[in-house]
Design a protein that fits this description.
- The chain is mainly β.
- It has no helices and 11 strands.
- The chain has strands at 3-7, 10-13, 18-25, 33-39, 46-52, 57-59, 67-72, 77-82, 91-99, 102-105, 109-114.
- Strands 2, 4, 5, 6, 9, 10 and 11 form a 7-stranded mixed sheet that branches.
Length: 115
């Protein structure tokens, strides 16, 4: 059974950095697209960043220039390097992966940025 296993969330001060990781364990297929969404309390879930297997990236305007998404296809793992974090980045971050047979979601990891 394929699962998305996330790690790297936590508490950081404004201006700090965190790196999130998400591995698609148990899959023999490379995900077509992998990415991160986030949901803050009382707000809708929103796309943060996504990357295709070919390396094409997409970012939300609010994180451009601060976040970098990357992936290791051999490990079926996606990373999100978050720099210059702001209190408004506080949210639960969810990894997602699109395979030819469907989409998967991780359990979510909390990122809290204190001012």
């Amino acid at each position: 059974q394929v699962q998305l296993v996330e790690s790297g969330g936590g508490l950081v001060q404004a201006g700090g950095s965190l790196r999130l990781s998400c591995a698609a364990s148990g899959s023999i297929f490379i995900a077509n697209r992998m990415g991160w969404d986030r949901q803050a309390p009382g707000k809708q879930r929103e796309l943060v960043a996504a990357i295709t297997s070919g390396g094409t990236t997409t970012y939300a305007d609010s994180v451009k220039g601060r976040f970098t998404i990357s992936r290791d296809n051999a490990k079926n793992t996606v990373y999100l390097q978050m720099n210059s974090l702001k209190p408004e980045d506080t949210a639960v971050y969810y990894c997602n992966a699109d395979f030819h047979y469907g989409s998967l979601w991780g359990q979510g990891t909390q990122v809290t940025v204190s001012s």
